[in-house]
Design brief:
Chain lengths: 503, 503
C-alpha cells in the first residue's frame, strides 16, 4: 500500500542500483504530477518493508533525493517533497572568464615557466637555468641500457608499474644514500618525475592553504612556485655565507609555529653556499625542539669538485625528521625526469598515495633503463668526467668575472654545483641589466626570481655548467661592457633608480 | 650621524644585498645591546641619505625586520625596535604526528592507490583495473622507434624539453583529434604523464577548496581522488543507460552553481555506456546556459569494436567550452605514461604553467619515441589488432555471464572499451563478494569505488581487456559459484545484511 501510493516499482532487470530506482521513481512521480510538492514521504522503515528491501536502501534513496533538491527533511517531522524554484543563469561571453582557481592565478606559479622558457631557449650564450652540460651526457651507454631492458622485459616495462617506483631502482637509490651515511631502505624511497615533482608531492603532503612554511630567503624558484600554488604563507629566513641563520630561524620558528622548513644545505640554489656540519647539527636540534619537519633538497650533492663532503641532514638526523629530495637530472640526464624522495614509512605511504593521484607512477621503462645504466657503473664514470669539466668552467668563470666585473660586482666561489652567485655594486639592478644583456645574446638568471619576497634585484646567478670556457669569456665580456656603460652614466642611472622601486 | 648612531656600515665587498646588510646591522646592534628595545629608527629618507643608498633599499630593510619581528611600525609615529618574547615549544614524540595536510588525509586519496595495487598485483584471474592486454603490446616496433630517436638526437632528448610537450607529438595528437572532427591546433595540446595527470592539472586549474564540481554519480575513481585531494565539493548526478541525466544535471547546475562538469561520454568508466549525439548536444547547450565548463574524459574513444562512432563533445562544441582529456595508456602502452589535454589557449597557458610547477614537463625521450612509433603507422596496426581481440573477449565475457550469473545479476553490453558493468540481484553485496572471490584467486573492481558517495555496493566492474577467453570462463565460473552459494543461504545473508550498513 505504501509503495503503491507512491507508484513505485523495483525492476530487478535494471542495471540501476535499487536505491537509485526508488529515488528516480519518486522524482518521476513529482515530475508527472502524480505526487504533489509538500507530500510527506513514508517512514523509511515502512517503505523498506513495502518494497521488501533493506531499510538502508531507502535511507540512501531519500538522501540522494535530498542532495538533488527533490526532498527536504525536517527533524522530528519527516521528509517532504519540495518544489525547487528555477534559477536561470545568464550565459557569460567567455566560458573561462573568472573560472580559474585562485591559487594558480598568482604570478609565482607562472614565473617558473617563464624562467624555464628563458633557460631552455638555447639561444646566444646562456648562463641561465641550472642545466648540466649536454655534450657530456652519456647518450650511447644509456641507449645500450634502454635497448637491453626493452629486449629483455619490454612488455612488463611498458605496462603499469608500482606507484612507489621500479623496485631495483629504489634499492639502488637507497644504496647510494647509505654510502653517503644515510639510514634508509628501498621502501622508504619514492621515485618521482624529477625533484620538482618530489617537492610538489612533499609540500602537498604537509601544507594546507595558509600554512606557514619557512624557507631560506634566497631559494629555489621551483619550490617557491609550488608553495604559491598551494597558497602557503612563505616566510623567508635570511642567511649568511654558510646558509640559513639559526638566530633568525629560531625567531621565525617561535613567531610562525611553522611545521615545515625547506633548505638546500649543499651548493644552495642560487648562492652555491654550503652549510657546515656544526650548523647542520644545530639546525636539526632546533627543528626538533620546535617540532618542525625539515625538507632537505640535495639536488647537487654529487657535484662537488673541490673541498670535503659534508654529511647530509638526512644522514646526520638518522632519517627520522628529515624528508630528503634529490634527482638524477642535474648529475646525469635531465630528459629522464627521474628524481626521488626519501622519507620515513608513514610519510612515504602518504606520498605514494598522492603520487598515484598525481600520475599513477613514473614510467617503469625509464626507471628500468636508468637502473641498468647505474648497474653497469655508468654514473661513477660520468661523475668523474663532469666534475673535472665543471671545475674547469668554474675557474673560467671566476677568472672572467675578475677580468670583466672587478669593482662592479662581488661573487661566490663554489666548490661544486653548476653556478656562481653575484651581487652588482653601486646600486646596479640585475633586472634592468637582464634586458640589455638578452639583447646582446647573453642570458642569466635574475636574483629576484629566487627571493621569497622578490627582493635581491641587485643580484644574479651565472651558470657555468652548460657553457664552454670560450663562451664564458665572451659572455662575461659583454656583461662587463654593459655594467661599465651603466656606471659611466651615473646621472642617468640615478634618475632611473628613483623611478623604479628596486626593493 | 644618523647611520653612525645605529652603528651601521655597508660593506661593498659582501655578497649580501644592501638591504640585508642594513637589516642585519640593526638586528646585530639590538643583539649586542648597543641598541635598546623601544628605540625609534630614523626616517627611511634620512637613513638613505646618510648611507648614500636608495630610499627603497632602507624601506626594504625595515620591512624585512618587521617580518622577522625585530621592529614594529605604528602609523604616524614611526618604526621601533621591539623585544620579542621567547615562546618555548615542547618537542612532540613523533615528528610527523598531526603534520599532514587535511586534503591528503581523506580516505578517497588513499583509495586510488589501494585500487591500483589490487589491479597490478597480477595474481590469479584479474577482472580488476581497466588495463589493456599486455601480450598485444607492440614492444618490438616501439623498441625500434626508441633506438632510432636515441641514435639520431639522443643528447637533445635527454635534456630538458618544452613544458607543453615535444612539438611533433603535439602536432600528431592535434592531427588525430582533427580526424575525429575537432578544431584544434598543436599549441592547444599539453602532453601529460597519462590522463591521470591531465585530470589533476585540469581540476587544479579550475577548482578552489570547497568549490562544487559536478560528476556522473558513477565515475572514474582517479577523478574522485583528485577532487578529494583538492578538497572539492563533489556532486554526483545520476545517469541512465545513455549517461548523465539532463533533468538532474539541470537541477544540479541550478542548485550548486558549479563551474565545472566532468563527464566520460564514450565507454564511460565504469558502466561502458555511450551518450548519444542528441544528448551530447543538449548537454553542451545546458552547460553554455549555466556558464559551466565541461571536462570531457575520452580515454577509450579509439577502442570501439562495434556500432557507430559518436562525435566527441570537443568536436561538437568546436573546442570553445570543452577541456578534452585523453591518453595513450589504454589504447597503446600504459608504461609510457603519456596522455594529453586539449584546451583553448587561455586555459592551456595556465595548464602549462601548472605542469611546469608539477614536474617541469614529461620526458622528451618518451614523447619522441612515441611520436616516431606513431609516424611509422604503428598505432593503426595496433588498434586493428586490439579491437578484434577485445570484441572476442567481450563476447566471451557476455557468454560466461549468461552461463554462470543468469538470474543472479544484470549487466551492460559494451560496444567498445575494456569492461562490463554488472549489478547483483537479490540484495547481494559486491564488496562482500570481493573478499570471497579474492580468496579463490578472482579479482574484480567493487562498484562502490566508482560512486561519488561510495554507494553502488551491489555493483561490480569486470574487465575483459587483459584476460584470455579461457580465464574469463574460469573466473566467471568461480564468481557464479560464490554468488549461487550466497543465494542458497538466504537467512544467513539476511542476517549479515542487517549488520552491515550497505548504502
Amino acid at each position: 500500500v505504501v509503495a503503491a501510493s507512491l507508484g513505485l516499482t523495483i525492476d530487478p532487470r535494471s542495471p540501476l542500483p535499487v536505491y537509485r530506482q526508488i529515488a528516480d521513481g519518486i522524482r518521476q512521480g513529482l515530475g508527472e504530477g502524480r505526487l504533489q510538492p509538500g507530500l510527506r514521504l513514508p517512514a523509511t522503515r515502512d517503505l523498506a518493508r513495502a518494497l521488501q528491501v533493506n531499510r538502508n536502501t531507502v535511507v540512501a534513496a531519500y538522501e540522494a533525493l535530498g542532495r538533488e533538491g527533490v526532498v527536504a527533511s525536517h527533524t522530528g517531522r519527516g521528509t517532504f517533497l519540495v518544489d525547487p524554484k528555477e534559477v536561470p543563469v545568464p550565459e557569460p561571453a567567455d566560458p573561462f572568464a573568472h573560472a580559474f582557481a585562485r591559487a594558480v592565478e598568482g604570478s609565482k606559479v607562472a614565473s617558473l615557466l617563464s624562467v624555464y622558457r628563458t633557460a631552455i631557449s638555447g639561444e646566444g650564450i646562456s648562463f641561465a637555468g641550472s642545466f648540466p652540460a649536454a655534450e657530456l651526457m652519456p647518450v650511447e651507454p644509456f641507449r645500450r641500457a634502454m635497448g637491453a631492458v626493452l629486449r629483455e622485459r619490454g612488455a612488463e616495462l611498458l605496462s603499469y608499474g608500482a606507484t612507489g617506483g621500479y623496485a631495483p631502482l629504489r634499492e639502488a637509490v637507497a644504496e647510494g644514500m647509505r654510502r653517503r651515511g644515510s639510514r634508509v631502505d628501498a621502501d622508504e624511497i619514492l621515485v618521482t618525475n624529477g625533484s620538482q615533482q618530489a617537492l610538489e608531492l612533499v609540500f602537498r603532503t604537509f601544507v594546507d592553504p595558509g600554512d606557514p612554511v619557512l624557507v631560506e630567503d634566497l631559494t629555489y624558484t621551483g619550490a617557491l612556485s609550488v608553495l604559491a600554488s598551494l597558497d602557503a604563507r612563505v616566510v623567508g629566513v635570511p642567511g649568511d655565507e654558510e646558509g640559513i641563520r639559526l638566530d633568525l630561524l629560531t625567531r621565525a620558528l617561535e613567531r610562525h609555529r611553522a611545521r615545515v622548513l625547506y633548505v638546500q644545505p649543499t651548493f644552495h640554489n642560487p648562492t652555491a653556499r654550503v652549510m657546515g656540519e656544526a650548523r647542520r647539527r644545530e639546525l636539526l636540534a632546533l627543528a626538533a625542539r620546535h617540532g618542525c619537519i625539515v625538507v632537505e633538497d640535495d639536488w647537487a650533492g654529487d657535484l662537488r669538485f673541490e673541498g670535503v663532503e659534508v654529511p647530509t641532514l638526512h644522514a646526520l638526523d638518522g632519517g627520522s625528521r628529515v624528508v630528503y629530495v634529490s634527482t638524477f637530472s642535474k648529475k646525469l640526464l635531465p630528459g629522464l625526469r627521474v628524481g626521488w624522495v626519501a622519507a620515513p614509512a608513514p610519510v612515504l605511504e602518504r606520498l605514494v598515495a598522492l603520487k598515484q593521484v598525481a600520475d599513477c607512477g613514473t614510467s617503469p621503462l625509464l626507471q628500468a633503463a636508468l637502473h641498468r645504466f647505474l648497474a653497469d657503473g655508468g654514473l661513477d664514470d660520468h661523475l668523474r668526467r663532469v666534475r673535472r669539466t665543471y671545475r674547469e668552467r668554474r675557474d673560467a668563470m671566476l677568472a672572467g668575472l675578475a677580468r670583466h666585473l672587478a669593482g662592479q660586482a662581488v661573487w661566490t666561489r663554489p666548490e661544486g654545483g653548476l653556478f656562481v652567485w653575484a651581487r652588482l655594486l653601486h646600486g646596479l639592478d640585475a633586472t634592468a641589466l637582464f634586458g640589455e644583456a638578452a639583447a646582446r645574446g647573453v642570458l642569466f638568471s635574475r636574483g629576484e626570481l629566487f627571493h621569497a619576497e622578490g627582493l635581491a634585484r641587485d643580484c644574479l646567478r651565472l651558470t657555468y655548467g652548460g657553457v664552454s670556457p670560450e663562451q664564458i669569456e665572451a659572455g662575461l665580456a659583454i656583461l662587463g661592457q654593459l655594467v661599465g656603460a651603466r656606471e659611466r652614466r651615473p646621472e642617468v642611472a640615478a634618475a632611473e633608480w628613483d623611478a623604479v622601486p628596486i626593493l
